Amino acid sequence: MATEENQKIIEIDGSFGEGGGQILRTATSLSALFKIPCHIFKIRQKRENPGLAKQHLLYLEALCELTQGRLEGNYLSSQEIKFYPGDFWKESLKIKIDSAASITLILQGLLLPALFSKNKTRVIFEGGATDTFFAPPFDYFNFVFLSFLDKFLEKVFKKKVLKIDLGLKKRGFYPKGGGEVEVEIYPLPYLAKFEKIDFPKDKGKILKIKVFSLASEDLRERKVAERQISGIRQTPLFYSKLKIPIKIEVDYLKTLSSGSVITVIGEFENGIFGESALGELGKSAESVGKEAGEKFFEEIKKGGIVDKHLADQILPYLALLTKETLLNVGEISLHTKTNAWVIEKFLKGRFELKENQICWKR
Question: What is the pTM (predicted TM-score) of this model?
Answer without folding.
Answer: 0.95
